Amino acid sequence: MIEKDTYKTITKASPEVLFKEKNSKFFGYAFPVHSEDVVKLHIEELKKQHHSARHWCYAYQLGKEERNYQFRANDDGEPNNSAGMPIYGQIQSFDVTNVLIVVVRYFGGIKLGVGGLISAYKTTAQMALEQSKIVRRTINQDIELKFEYKDMNKVMRVIKEKNLKIKSQTLELDCKIIISVRLKNSEAVFEAFQSIFGVQVKCLES
């Protein structure tokens, strides 16, 4: 059984894919994204690149945990739910997140009907994800440790024993270390540091 503290995403932008249907051309792209600002940048770039296209339809999902997912599907002038949702359906089908899929359509003069559009947008999104490198990553919890310099050895011993990753450290008279811990281990690690007298432990918001 796969732990709930992992998620799947893509590592880099997919190559451009092309699907043709009755003279209409559908260009598909998948991008790794972490914010709505990055989503907007990619869409603006594609609008410049394909300035004579008719529609720039897309869907994205942000977040590492299901309960925190943010998603959006945009039909960009196509009939309701004929483009954005079929694209989003492929994000769900491939079980990926922090991803944006854009499908750019050049109208070929023959109407495809709602069913034809749904099929074309779904297929193009699927092709873009099939061309992407999908990886599984762990969801981590950042924990902040504050302590006096005299307690350094005790803290470092636990970090070494548990093979913890240090994200940042300030080692002066008053010390502060931020460690990154896999979510499923975070409670045990938190308690291990809490048991050391003189160490203040705090979980940070991701």
Précis, in short:
With 206 residues, the protein is of the alpha+beta class. The protein has helices spanning 36-49, 84-93, 113-130, 152-161, 186-194; strands spanning 6-10, 17-21, 24-32, 55-62, 70-74, 99-106, 134-138, 140-148, 165-171, 174-182, 200-203. It is elongated, with a radius of gyration of 23 Å.
Protein described:
- It is a single chain.
- The protein is α+β, with helices and mostly antiparallel strands and 206 residues long.
- The chain folds into two domains: 6-137, Ribosomal Protein S5, domain 2 (2-Layer Sandwich), CATH 3.30.230.30; 139-203, 2-Layer Sandwich (Alpha-Beta Plaits).
- The chain is built from five helices and eleven strands, in the order βββαββαβαββαββαβ.
- The chain has helices spanning 36-49, 84-93, 113-130, 152-161, 186-194; strands at 6-10, 17-21, 24-32, 55-62, 70-74, 99-106, 134-138, 140-148, 165-171, 174-182, 200-203.
- Strands 2-3-6-4-5 form a five-stranded antiparallel beta sheet, with helices on both faces. A four-stranded antiparallel beta sheet has the order 9-10-8-11, with helices on one face.
- Helix 2 runs parallel beside helix 3 (113-130).
- The longest helix is centred in the middle third of the chain and has 18 residues, at 113-130.
- It is elongated, with a radius of gyration of 23 Å.
- The model has no long low-confidence stretch (mean pLDDT 91).
